[in-house]
Structure formats: structure tokens, C-alpha cells
Automatic annotation (TrEMBL):
Gene3D superfamilies: 3.40.50.1100, Threonine synthase, N-terminal domain. It catalyses: O-phospho-L-homoserine + H2O = L-threonine + phosphate. The keyword Lyase applies. NCBIfam families: thrC. PANTHER family: THREONINE SYNTHASE FAMILY MEMBER, THREONINE SYNTHASE-LIKE 2. This is Threonine synthase. Residues 96-379 form the Tryptophan synthase beta chain-like PALP domain. Belongs to the threonine synthase family. The keyword Lyase applies. It is an enzyme of class 4 (lyase). Keywords: Amino-acid biosynthesis, Lyase, Pyridoxal phosphate, Threonine biosynthesis. One of its GO terms (molecular function) is threonine synthase activity. Pathway: Amino-acid biosynthesis; L-threonine biosynthesis; L-threonine from L-aspartate: step 5/5.
Amino acid sequence: MKYYSTNKQAPMASLQEAVVKGLAADRGLFMPMTIKPLPQDFYDTIDSLSFQEIAYRVADAFFGEDVPADTLKQIVYDTLSFDVPLVKVADNIYSLELFHGPTLAFKDVGGRFMARLLGYFIKKEGQKDVNVLVATSGDTGSAVANGFLGVEGIHVYVLYPKGKVSEIQEKQFTTLGQNITALEVDGTFDDCQALVKAAFMDKELNEHLSLTSANSINVARFLPQAFYYFYAYAQLKRAGKADNAVICVPSGNFGNITAGLFGKKMGLPVKRFIAANNRNDIFYQYLQTGKYNPRPSIATIANAMDVGDPSNFARVLDLYGGSHAEISAEISGTTYTDEQIRETVKETWKEHHYLLDPHGACGYRALQEGLKPGETGVFLETAHPAKFLETVEGIIGEAVEIPAKLQEFMKGEKKSLPMTKEFADFKKYLLTI
Ligand SMILES: *Cc1c(COP(=O)(O)O)cnc(C)c1O
């Protein structure tokens, strides 16, 4: 399969090039040339298949031309070593719990899949070692670091803002060792991101090192998230609720929802999508006005969605030929304040005894307010509420149990390298690795 750039000014790339480079030469995002529909009999029998079996069929449609079948199957099965259950929360509203992986957030699947696919390409002749740079405000760093841990030929550098991530988050990427290095930057998340961007643009660095990004601009990170949507549908079908399915996605950089839109293009019977935003509602405003106005992000309690210029918006536009009318026909939007998010976490706990995290709360509320008669809603619960312990405990006024996986991380010893926010220092460091 060939990949083109959303900016259409770069040559076509192979899957290997798209994964190793991350971004196209014209700074556009890679898109697969074709999105293959899956046959009707797959959808007819999907409720009898396992998560892994479903995911392999989906992965084969995207990556089957470029990766041998047994290797691809192994990558998929190894990535999906945990379940993603559909849990009923209220009448006609279900939570797809994406937080049962190693770092308890949905990015685990993309992180692991990308690590294994890149590992496969590196083992093949001719691909030199790759350095993955990732800037994080908390969740991405842990999912990527844990996904890449121990993969030969790849070294991961996690840049995070000193004093601005929670202790639980910090422990998940500073205690691993091996091929994972944590760089504690004396600055903000935006400073971390600026350092990573400057490194990708620096000619001298790129002559010395093979650098790539592991955020959702990378096709190997975001496409595997399509697995979730097919499995959600399979479980709805098992429950006899698959007609008029509406899927609601708490969205920041829009990688997750874009993977769902790809699923629909492959024939997945989803009636419509809702993108739930916090106060960083650039996409919501786009739907209302037809104008895309990026702006600096503002801090909220659903901080993984604090994005002021969603990188995958370019892919959404490309999928619908830039048509605002077509995009609005398929996706609606919502926007919630911290106050509304708190209210939703509290009420859902009180009325349904279901504990939402602040991101999932946006998704649940959008369905509560926006479902039409005859529709069944699924929201993606993107992280375990214990990852936002202080916020959630503060809202419900009760202690939240910390899962064993998180407790394990807390026992590790933090190791990180201090780094200033000056690019000259970061560059000097990278030239020594
Ligand atoms: C990353 C993240 C999101 C947003 O996902 P995008 O693909 O960036 O839209 C939502 N919730 C949580 C918990 C996340 O970590």
C-alpha cells in the first residue's frame, strides 16, 4: 500500500517510509491510498469473533500488503493481550472501557502496535536504528514508553515538563530503564513539544540520526485504534443493540476518532459520530462556523484533550474532500467546561454507580444530551479514573481504589536527565547519543 501526504506536495511513501518518517516531507500527514471495505459476511458473523480475530481482519486490510501474514498476526495478538469490554452504564448508553492495558489508557494499543511494526522494519535489512522523540503532558509518554520497552533497534526519549505531571504519570516512564530515557525539561509542555519539533526540522541532527515521532500523526499509532470500533460493534450486536449505533469519542488531537471514521469507510455500520471536546473546542467551533481557527490550548481537568490545533484535523478534512457539509453530516460536536465535567462525574457515580474519568465524562454527557429515540450510544472511556486520582476523589468525596498495575509503577525508582528548554542544549545532547 502506498501512502500520500494530506498536503499533496510530497512523493508517495511505502508503509515503512511512512512509519519511520512519521510526517511527510511537505509537513503533511500520511494517508493510505485506499481504504478497503470488509466483506458483508465479516459483519454478519462479527459477533462470533474474538477481539484479536476482528483486529487481525482490520489490520490485514491496511497492512496486509506490506507485512507477512504470520508476522502481522503476531503483532496484533501480542498488542491485544487484554480485553476492551462494553459495559452498560444507563439505558441505551454503554461505556467501551479502553483502559485495561499496561498504562490504563487507550493509547496503549497504538503505542504497542507501532513499536512492534517499527521493530519488524528495523530487523529487516537496511533500516538503521531509530530514535523516537515524544513530548508528553502525561499519558502519551507512558503508553509509548511501555509499548517500546525492550524493542531492539529503537530508543525512546520522553520529554516532559518538570513538576507538571502527576507522580503516577511520571513513574510510568521514568522507572523503566533499558531503551527508555526520560528528559525532565525545565519548562512547559509547549516547550517540550517545541524541542521535539525543532529536532525534526534540524538538518544536522537528521543527517546523524534517524528520528521519528510516536504521536498520533504516525499511521502505525493511529490506525490500530480502528480495532476498538469494530469490537464495540461486535459487542453491541451480541447484546442485540447494534441498530442505529452512535459512537462518541472524547477528542483532543483527533487520532482516535479519525480511526473510527476509517472504520466507517470500511463499511462498519455506525450511524454517526460525536466528538466530545472540553473547553478546547476548536473542532466544535469548526462544525458551527465552517472555519478552523486554531488557538493556544487552555488547561482543563481533562488534560489529555487540551489541544489547541488538533493534528489529525487534516486527516478528517482529507477523508471528506474538505467538505464541511459532509463532515457535519457524519460528526456532531459538544463542548464542556470543567464545572460540567465535575457535575457529570458526580451524578453518574451517584445515579448509576459508574465512575467516569474526566475525559470519559465528556463522552457520556454528550450521549445523555444528544441521543435520539431509537439510537444506542457507546462512548469510549479513554482512561481509568484512578489515573486522575486527586481530581476524581475530590469530585466524589470518596477514596478511589488504585489498580495493582499502577501500584507496581509507584514502587519503581525515578530516573531522569535534567534538560533546559533551549534547543541548543537538547541538540548537543542528541549529538552525543
Ligand atoms: C489522548 C487522550 C484523549 C484524546 O485522544 P485523541 O486521539 O488525541 O483525540 C482522550 N482521553 C485520554 C485519556 C487520552 O489520553
